[in-house]
Design a protein that fits this description.
Number of strands: 0
Largest sheet: none
Keywords: Membrane, Transmembrane, Transmembrane helix
Strand content: under 5%
Helix content: over 70%
Radius of gyration: 18 Å
Number of helices: 2
Structural class: mainly alpha
Length: about 80
């Protein structure tokens, strides 16, 4: 009973991770836009917006590098 259940979870794990990553990206983007729209936090937004874009770019590059890399490093 536990065998097939574990297999199903392992198969759906990559799609679940990408879905979570997409949600996190949307939340970060919404937070950045909200900060930009908030007049009192304009100085913070000026710094936070570019940093958020850079952070998302770095995460995207690292994510694609990890996915293209083989799971087991050669010995």
């Amino acid at each position: 009973m536990s065998g097939p259940g574990l297999r199903k979870r392992r198969v759906s794990a990559p799609s679940g991770l990408s879905l979570v990553a997409g949600l996190v990206f949307v939340i970060i983007a919404a937070a950045t836009l909200g900060t930009l729209a908030w007049g009192l936090w304009w100085q913070v937004a000026k710094i936070a917006a570019p940093l958020t874009l850079v952070f998302c770019g770095v995460v995207g590059i690292v994510w694609s590098q990890r996915r293209s890399r083989p799971t087991r490093p050669p010995h």
